[in-house]
Amino acid sequence: MTGDFVTSPEPILRVSNLTKTYSKRSWFSPGGPPKAALNGISFNLSERETLAFVGPSGAGKSTLVRCIAGRERPDSGDIWFAGEDRRAIQLIPQDPGTSLNPRLTALQVVSEPGAGRRVPELLSMVGLPVESSGAKVTAFSGGQRSRLALARALACDPRILILDESLASLDLPVQAQMVNLLLDLQDRLGLAYILIAHDLGIAGHFADRIAVIDEGRIVEEGPPVELFQRPQHPRTRSLIACAPGGIPC
Amino acid sequence: MTRLWLVALTLAAIHLAVALAGFISPYDPAEQHRDYPFEPPMAVHFFDSGGNFHLRPFVFSAGRMYPLQVLVNGKLFQVEEPGHVFLLGTDAFGRDQFSRILHGGRVSLGAGLLATLLTLLAGLILGSVAGFYGGWRDTVLMRLAEVFLALPWLYLLLGVRAFLPLSLDPVRTFLLTIAVIGVVGWARPARLFRGIVLSAKEREYVYAARGFGASSLHIFSWHILPDLRSAALTQATLLIPQYILAEVTLSFLGLGVGEPAPSWGGMLAPLREAGMLTSHWWLAMPAFALLPVVMCYYAAISTSPSDR
Amino acid sequence: MRVKSGVLCALSGALFVALCPGEELLVSHSAKGRRDGRLTVALRAEPKTLNPLIAMDLPSRDVIGRMHADLISIHRQTQLTQPALAKSWTVSPDGRRYTLHLRRGLRFSDGHAFDADDVVFTLEAFLDEKTHSPQRDLLIVDGHPLTARKLDAYTVLIELPAPYAAAERIFDGLPMLPRHILEKPFREGKLAEVWRLNTPADGIAGLGPFRLKQYQPGERLVLERNPYYWQEDGSRQRLPYFDELTFLFVGSEDAQVTRFAAGETDILNRVSPRMFPQLAAGQASRGDIVSDAGPSLEYNFLVFNLSPAVKPTWFQQTAFRKAVSMAVDRDSIVRLVYGGRGAPMWGNVSAGNRQWSNSNIPIPVRSLSQARDLLASAGFTWDSGKTLRDRTGKPVEFSIIVASSNTERVQMATIVQYDLKQLGMKVQVASLEFRSLVDRVLNTRQFDAAIMGLGGGDADPNSEMNVWLSSGGMHVWNPGQKQPSTPWEGEIDRLMRAQMSAIRIKERKQQWDRVQQLIAENVPMVFLASPHVVVAARKWVGGFAPAAMADYTLWNVEELFHRDN
Amino acid sequence: MRAGGDSVLIRYLARRALHAVLLLFGVSALSFALVDLAPGDYFTDARLNPRISSETVAGLRGEYGLDRPLPVRYLRWLRSAMAGDLGVSLAYNLPASALLAPRAGNTLLLASSALALAWLAGVPLGWWAATRKWPGRILSFAASAALTIPELLMAVMASIVAVRTGWFPAGGHLALPALVLAAGSMPVVIRHTRAAVLEVVDSPFLVAARAHGISEGRLVFRYVLPAAANPLISLAGLSLGTLLSASLLVEVILGWPGLGPLLLEAVYARDVPVIVGSIVISAVFLMLGSLVADVALYACDPRIRVEA
How many angstroms separate the CA atoms of B239 and B224, rounded? Predict the structure, then answer.
């Protein structure tokens, strides 16, 4: 696994010292005291790498990926991306089905980023029958919708895919199929993945590197095997303790 | 579903009758029969005083029998001069109420539709801008909406009428007035639409669309407008009767359709005079035209899937 | 409570008579009534002020008129002047000096004595420029104010700067004010601020039959008997008969009729003649007194904009105006608008004006064919669509503006429009809110024709100088002319000025008749109709004597009484 | 949540107050401009009196500052408004606030009586309509039919009934206008109550409660009404606002000494301070109505976060 670091030493994403605090307070709306969501997060991501962020809910994982995906602006810190076009970072949300407008057909969804002619290719790439392109989104099952969301993300020629607990809502067998598909795509297209999970289960199987995140900080980071065998931080230990699927070693 | 059909059919029938007013009504709505002011409605008879049946129905005008002539001179029915047929009676100038109700419907229904269209258009644009862009645009527009809600539009109308050219015919004058009401009414639907846009733009698929760099126009027309459509429809069924009724209020204040053009509100206005309703009850007939229209629109609201 | 106050009033009255043997009361010759009860009348709107100096609106004047009295008043039925606070007067041969002899021993409603100083003060107050009294203009003749001089405590000499016919008529409606209350504000230049609606009752005093008791905002204003009132009836009973006079504020004429029918008011102080059938029903069922006092002084007319700037110039052609007048169906107006209770008009003075109406004005029969002949002779033609076109081929289209608040005039406009359609004219009726209309007619002059009404005031031609003089601000068809633009307007100017300073009534009548004739011949206004004065009262109202002149039923309110079956 | 609730509420109220001040600025400035739009002014009327010269009228206009430009007049009004006078009425020569205060009180009395009446009758009727099938349908049909009658017409009919029967005074009394206004807003109350009750009446906990033999009346007061309360409370806040605007014309027709007659007359007389003053007061009423509803909602159910 560590070999990956050797093959691509040049990172395609470099995040340094990211901070973000939330305050709902403004002239017109009351709110509580400001709350830090990100507190100086730094990491690098290389091509073909899968990096997982693991931590309890409210640790700041979602804020982090939203900042990376450009949905939110960090208060300070730097996000450097090798590509010029931000479209090359695509986020697949928690429940991928919600990212599809239920009024549209599969064809409309996948061609939305402007990839009209490639739709059949993209659909087959994610393992959906090409004939289904005329069907409405609502006609698809949960797993199929995830694939549809993936196909649309691929239409943007992404270099980084962010999976924000995107597989959590799927049944286990479907999850496994998706993981295989994702690994396959990583092979074929050289994608890098940022994986968000609140438990270690799927991250342990899938990621090259795991970063444990707690209260807006990365408290521990390393390859899964190292992390599971020699956890340093109490948070890591507690996460291991309650991992549902057991430890992958 | 059957109820919705019934409502739609009734509305269609009324609108059709009003659209064909020129053919169905026996008289010009402005024609004054000065010798017949406040004539009560005439009954259509089939039996004469001797109890004999006549295939061709007839009316009594000035004590004489006049058979109805059907489909002559491009009219659905009329009677020979010097007889008159006033199915729903006449007003103070001896103008045929039946003809005036049909012609007046054009103005009243047209005004309702026009004002609704303008309100929705203005509300849609401003509400969407406020909700979609947020920030200072939202603040300014929503504060302005509150001001507009608090302002009674009556004053505006006084001013507007005074500035319209005098040579404009009464119907156009009124349509312009009601257009002003329509535009001024943007605030309420705008707030509704803003709320819908606000929640719609938080949808995951909107974020996704932003993620692959879709333009605002694309996002709006693909992902937000469809949400607004059903709300706009509901609003329309709510606003149309409201504006039709507004015409009644305007006429009571002397700001409605000018003479001699008929409108339902204008025709009801004389009822405000003391004793008019009791002595000339048939002047209330336009209210019975108003009733099914407004009821149907309200029924349409309660039948439509998304409630307000 | 009521009984008690009545007793008190009677007591104080008796005491007062005993103390002042020199009191010169006016003896009324009306039917003798009994002092008791209260009378409730509706006002079309809330009065705006109780200050006679600045009151402009009718409701205020209706109320103020009951609280105050004038030196000389106009008898509303005969329309002639009669003594009031001045028991008599003499006029110098040149008509410029009026010597007024006041009644002795009179008192204001607060018990303070009234004498010549009050008269001099009142005239001074009305003439004060700082007060901006709308009545000030009445006291200015030929650009100069009249002057008042006290000769002794009960004699006043009024001097006019120029001869002015019927000068005594200007004293009607000029209430005598209490100097002892108003002198201080007058010196401080604050006369316009006194006697507002929220002024306490004891801060106001007048010489009228009633005095302020209570004001309920938006609802009612209650007056009570003035115990010092200066009239008595034949049996030495001091007037007024009623203990209280209540004015209810009732927003519309329709609501007034409704509330009269519901028994909440006792007198309908003039309503539209259209209401007559409704009132007649009440007469039949409840025995209400319903009275048609005949044509009023009001005249409604269609006026053309004759300003030289107006294009095209159809209106400038007398034949065109005559054709319009010929086509208007006045009988239908009277029948449909006034329910038959109105008088068609062809001249500018209503038949209701007994003294001044010119009965020789010709009454042409309405004729569309004659109207068409007139138009044809003036070069107008009709095309196949029966549209009237002028010499240049331009279709005749114009608009008539009318006040939207006045149902009757809007109806007249509808009738006139239909009549003119028979001549091939395309007329739009634009009903405007009242002030917008006045602004167009008198300020901006942006209108083609208008239907308006005038003549609520006095019967005397002098009250309308502003209308008929070509330089007048209310010369509606072409106001404020530097030089009369037509010979006939020049002649009217000359006649109006002559009658104003003529002393002999016969001479004035001839001059005014000629003016009426000139107006009828040149048709700057098409006169339409004058509504009858229709009033009603509960059957128990005694002394009811409605007049065609304002204030129709209330002019003799002190003589009204509650008749006991 | 509850601990921080009070400070949140206070901050919320402060924010609403700030809004209110801004809103009143906007409303007053805009209505000032609107009234100015119509040609003519208070003294135009005097021009039509042949006995008053144009110079006198010009003098009067100068005296009251009507010859000044609009911004100057507005600032002058604003200064007087700050002092609590709301300007000096041109017609009454009195501070507008002194004129408006008693009438505003009357209008509020009328609107709140009508509201109380509509609710006291509407809620039980709505509940009754929800629990009975056919009477319910008929009642909701009747309610929507009642919605189609313009309030003005209803006022006219009410005064006819009053005169005919003598049950009520025809004018100047609270009963008749309150009844008319209540009749106008009751259908909405009935519909909403019925809908709210229908929603909870079949909920599992009620079915269970009924199975336990809890009496119908107890059920209604203990469970159904509290569960249906939220939408009804927000409706009440809104309907106070609509009632106030509807009441103006009803007041005019039925002679209730509220803001309506004063305002209508002021509009026709161009008495600017009275017009602007009463618009400002109605705006305050409107805001108070929604504030009361929001606070009541919060008090009923603290879980509801108060939001703009």
Answer: 22
